[in-house]
Amino acid sequence: MTTEKSFTALSTKWNEAGNHDIVISTRVRLARNLVNKPFPQRMNDGERQQLVETVCSAMKNTPLGQSGYHFFRGSELQEEEKALLLEKHLISPQFAEDNSEQGVLISDDESIVIMIGEEDHVRIQSFLPGLQLSAALAGANQVDDWLEQGLDWAFDDKIGYLTACPSNVGTGLRASVMVHLPALAIMGRLEQLFAAMGKLGLTVRGIFGEGSESLGALYQISNQVTLGYSEEEILVRLETVINQISAEEEKARQWLKEQQTVKLHDMIWRAYGRASYARTLTLKEMMNCLSRLRLGVDLGILEQVNKEQLNKMLIGGQNHFLCKADGRRLSSEDIDILRASFIRGTLREDTA
Amino acid sequence: MLCEKCKKNTATVCVTTIINGDKTVKNLCPDCAGQEGHLHMEMPFDHDFSLKNLWPTIFSLGQGDFSKQSGSQRCPQCQLSFQEFAQGGRLGCSHCYETFQSRLESMLQRIQGSGQHMGKLPKRLAGVKGIERQIEALRGQLQQAITVENFELAAQLRDEIKALQESATRGDA
Q: Is B117 in contact with A170 (Cβ distance < 8 A)?
């Protein structure tokens, strides 16, 4: 394991291929803060540095500290490196943009990522492929238990774990599931569905977190309410809704397959044609192509492509990963050319 | 905007068609779009669902005079004023919850629903708090048992509660 892996490997824990299709991945994060310390936003650089040291030394004595992980000090990370971690969804946009003292700890298999000095002192994140809410919570809880042996968390009997934003108070839990909903998007059903989700205390966002737009029919669905329910109850609610959405998407896919066969096939094969032969591809175009290809693979229409390739393209085709692989800083036109060539190359890999 | 085809329903689907380089954009309702068999439909997704941006709005709901009232009140620990919080949506430290308790409470109820934490407890509190929760749960069951006149179960539950209460006062977990 080299330090570089997080910045070069096109695979990560949540991206591991499996037999899940509509639900791509699960992320659970717990927000925790130390007692008697201002929240990061109100800390000066010295205090932030101390915070990073305190959390790091608590981590060293835990089983995670003794097995494999890498720790990066925010100030040591290049802007490009943060962008790479962001493209892998391992850190938040807010963390990537912040240039003050902070730290990020990434387990070797990238299933656990701890951000220190983001909005809260500590944000423990646990990533898994497919729909695995309980397992992801168990992973984050384990780390919380370990850290708690050396750290005193700010906690109130009535309102639970205290966080910088009251929208996280209580459990400090945000469980987020990445879903791929191309059929519902094609049929224009998403808006209704998303409106209903708001009423159930859930939030829908694009794949790059708060405020980001949807790319390639990928959405993140997460709990909004963090207080008044146990962690397990929050997960059960989310899982129930995710299962319903999956069933709706599945129905829509079957309907398209049976009632709009030619159009569906045409759409998928056109995307395959574009991906295989285009000489330039914007990020949006690529994400849309990948969405159609994934739909084709899921429905058994497209046998030329497999999930490993799709997952690899999903990360490797992002701007900073392309630049990293090329070793240069590129203009956006050059990135689009490089992206097309990367996609062509990856699609050709498995034809044997 | 009304649907360009039926001119009745609200247009929520924007259909972009490009034929030989000629681009046409039609705003349709989902029904008409479906009838026309459009499959290349992109959902508009320019809503920002994030709570952060809604914060000032949530705050002003029902308490529009908060800034006049005592917006200048400051947390003794971190010096954050309530007004700063209302604008930025972030508290300064864990003591802010105490400092601004009364106003936070009503807001928490609006965004979070029930105000009692039911989740994980820090290890240092898990013993005593855990027992309190068990007692609370058993009391519920006891009430249930009495309602259905299952007195045998009720007696058993009562004993369990008593035992737990005793262990709580002894302070063991």
A: yes
Please report the residues numbered 62 through 101 in chain A whose beta carbons come closer than 8 angstroms to any beta carbon of chain B. Answer: none
**Among the partner residues A144, A187, A206, nearest to B45 by beta-carbon distance:** A206
**Domains held by chain B: number:** 3
Q: Are strands B22-28 and B13-19 parallel, antiparallel or unpaired?
A: antiparallel
Note whether B34 and B77 are same-domain residues: no
Is residue A186 less than 8 Å (CB to CB) from chain B?
A: yes
Q: Which of A54, A14, A12, A13 is nearest to A32 (CA)?
A: A54
- State the residue range of the domain holding B63: 51-112
For testing contact with chain A, the best of B55, B58, B120 (most A CBs within 10 A): B120
Distances (CA, A) of A239 to A201, A210, B9, B64: 13, 21, 33, 37
Domain identity same for B30 and B59 = no
Worst-scoring range by mean pLDDT, A130-134, A185-189, B67-71, B83-87?
B67-71
Flag whether pLDDT at A277 surpasses 90: yes
Closest CA to A235 of A45, A82, A26: A26
Give the tokens for residue A299: 């429905």
Per the confidence metrics, is the pTM higher than 0.90? no
* Sign of the C-alpha dihedral computed for residues B31, B33, B34 and B35 taken in this order: positive
> Cβ of A233 under 8 Å from any chain B Cβ?
yes
**What residues have CB less than 8 Å from B116, skipping those under 6 apart?**
A158, A227, A228
Q: What is the ipTM of this complex?
A: 0.81
Q: Which residues of B touch A234 (CB under 8 A)?
A: 119
CB atoms within 10 A of CB B129: 17
- The answer to whether position B118 is within a domain reads no
Q: How far is B159 from chain A (nearest CA, A)?
A: 26
CB contact under 8 A, B39 and A267: yes
Q: Which of A161, A126, A160, A154 is nearest to A140 (CA)?
A: A126
Smallest CA–CA distance from B105 into chain A, residue: A159
Same domain, yes or no: B98 and B132: no
Q: Say if residue B2 is in the same domain as residue B33.
A: yes
Which chain B residues have a beta carbon less than 8 Å from that of A173?
A: 119
- Put simply, whether A38 touches B (Cβ < 8 Å) is yes
Q: How confident is the model at residue B44 (pLDDT cuts 50, 70, 90)?
A: very low
Provide the total of helices (H) and of strands (E) in chain A, helices listed first: 14, 10
Q: How far apart are the first and last CA of chain B?
A: 63
